[in-house]
Amino acid sequence: MKQLIDISKELFESKQVGYIIGYAEDKFKRVKPFVAYSSLDTERFVFNNNSVNNLAVYLTRLPKAKEGKIGIVAKGCDIKSIIALIQENQIKRDDVIIIGVNCNSVVNQIDEQFSKENTAIKCKYCQVRTPAHYDYLVGEIKEVELPEDKNFAIMQKLDSMSAEEKWNFWEAEFEKCVKCYACRQVCPLCYCEQCIVDKSMPRWIDSSATTKGNFAWNMIRAFHLSGRCIGCNECERACPAEIPLSLLNRKMGMVAINEFNYRHGTDINQPTLIGNYNVNDKEDFIM
Amino acid sequence: MRIGVFICHCGENIGRTVDCPSVASACANFSGVVHAEDYKYMCSDPGQNLIKQAIKEKNLDAVVVGSCSPHMHEKTFRKACSDAGINPFLVEMANLREHCSWIHDDVPSATRKAIDLVRMLVEKVKFNEPLIPIRVPVTKRALVIGGGISGIQASLDIANAGYEVVLVEKEPSIGGHMSQLSETFPTLDCSQCILTPRMVEVYQHPRIKLVSYSEVENVEGFIGNFSVTIRKKARSVKDELCTGCGLCVQKCPIKKVALSDFDEGLATRPAMYVPFPQAVPNIPVIDRSVCTYFKTGKCQLCKKVCGREAIDFEQQDQLIKEDVGAIIVATGYKLYTIDKKPDESMIKGYGEYGYGKFKDVVDGLQFERIASASGPTSGEMLRPSDKTTPKKIVFIQCVGSRDESKGFSYCSKICCMYTAKHAMLYKHKVHDGEAYVFYMDIRAGGKNYDEFVRRAIEEDGVKYIRGRVSKIYEENGKLIVKGEDTLAGVRVEIDADMVVLATAMIAQNDSVKLAQTLSVSYDKYGFFNESHPKLKPVETSTGGIFLAGACNAPRDIPDSVSMASAAAAKALVLFGSDVLEREPVVAKVNEATCAGCFYCQKVCAYNAIEQKEIKDRQGNVIKVVAYVNSGLCQGCGTCNATCPSKSVELLGFKDDQIYAQINSFAEVF
Questions:
Q1: Which of B596, B642, B647 sits opposite A275 (nearest CB)?
Q2: Nearest-Cα residue of chain A relative to residue B660
């Protein structure tokens, strides 16, 4: 922690940053996103297993720093979304200073004690516990015990289902959706100034929380994120209705990897999967 | 809104399956429709007058025509309506022919469908906005790529009409394949004698800028406004100083290392060379791959003898920019070479003919050089291996052409004629020689062409054998040609002294790359595609780019020249007006909602999307959004479909228009 605070202080004192987005504890000792605007603020920075939020979402939501760059404390997975934002022209690499953190996995349910069982599933397959891209690196890697992947079995089961069974499964899940759009608000890659669901002239997506409207919204969101989602899983964590959104996003991500060997947010200079034509792209899905 | 609906019977075409009067009466009840009628031929003069009259009498402000495809008559009806005072983009066409009557046979249901199709467009037209054509200026200057006979003809035609031309040739001299030929069919006049005056005319023309030994690197822009980058390859000779005296070529000590491309590898040339004596421009080039100075750092003999100090060993490739309004592609063809790297070729080759293995098996262009007075044998009929006169010569047609199993399925068109010419030239020079031609069919369509072939057979005694050759092998200094005569039904074996293969005409090696640079389409063989095989034979799918000669398909000289003049005429039509009018159906960005992800820029096939900075009053950049250059946009709508926040819309096909169209259809269910 001292490392993180020292680097942050130094960044403020050398006037390199306007603010730094990081994590701090509130008075109930809960870890929350926190923006430090001065070197004094940095004293409050923490990083532990409860630092679950993907702070990259604030890069496009907060106003630009008046002077200097934006500093950001980020885990390996979060850095993927920062790279994705750079790939998609939302921020410039030169405008951010990334303080990468060696991560020893994060909690699944933030209100419960961190344990092997209460570890996010994304951590099980994490290849960036030491981030692949950063300006500064802090923290140390420790041995961690990883949870069971319960979702994978569900995904396999879904794959083997008929179209009608799949429909029934998702109808039941989407039934719970209350169209609060928390999934969108928490997503670092949902940066559109006007989401298509808010477009009313004409209204392409039914805004009512009915089967039709819920399907339209959740399917459009899954399509808009396919080949783009980096798998931080914040949407599922934020969903008050506990819809297993990661099943959709993970499936789409697996298609991108298996069919096109593409992982979004791994290389700043890589052309994005969506929007770039490659003569070697598979075409066997075209009927 | 006051909408008029006009239903066309298209004679029987629509009327047979769609009950047009009842469609018209059903449409009269749609909200907003104040006039509906049907007529036998809406596109005819009286039909158009019906529309004009109704517009005036009923004070219409939008029109829906139910007739054929907009491809056929959208222009007609837009023009008629605009004559009557309605903005042409407030006219919509429901396709009741291709989309309805032609594909259905049940009258009641086809009629119902026709009503649906019209209703959808009535709903759409309510959201149409008047649009004004985009006007773009025209740069009245042409680029011609390729300095063969086609490129020369096109350049001269445009320049003589009073406009500037930039002629780019990749070889050191213009002239192309025609300069290699001996005599030309069907008149047997000397190829160089008729070509070189044209070459000189190009060189001396005040309005033609000849850029030789150069290639087109990049093309940006659009019809009327292209910006072209040309790579001027390093000649190692300063062309502005060189007088073409030829002293350096004479003194170059590297005489026998490099094979002459001009002589098709039958002769050698020095490291410092001009391809042929009549070359235009007559400026030599150093072949750096064989030059002693470039290999060892010593020699510089050419530099010592050059009185003008024109030799520049340090010369680098230069990139020059030219702004032009039209581009004529005349890059020509090459012959399929059987031996060289058959692995890279799309066809499997004709190894059984021994080309490249037996010295006396040559291709058509090599025979041209042997027969040519400027060639390696000074026009004497001598075979390459031992420089003796062949007494028996065999010509094989369709090597690679018309052979789907191992060659190309197309006919190379010129081989029948030039083989007859070759056999004739041979007989004229070797009176006691025997000439045999193996052919599949004799295709001699053209003015005086068949007469020419008959002359070869009847007057010059060339023996034509209908059949294919299966194998050629060497035995006792003779080439044994094994084939069959399918008319007589017997096997044939000829002990020839020399064999000439009429190999297929194929596209230039880099034609696909050039096609991609120019954004024009090409076929599977690498030939550039014309826009319409009958009605637009010299246009390409990209506006302002035209084709001439054998880069489009195998062509002989008369066809190439006519095509070049046609292409020049098309360019001149373009130069006839100061501004171009383009359809205003282009994409437009809603800058307020654009998030600047630039996925639209990635998918745009026409480079029409740019990045635009939005600034506040102090001049600080607030955000960067997409901006559509309406001069480049072709209105394909890909950006529209890609935009995740629906911030790009296509004028004339905006979301509210499409939405109204779909919704009105869904009402049925």
A1: B642
A2: A202
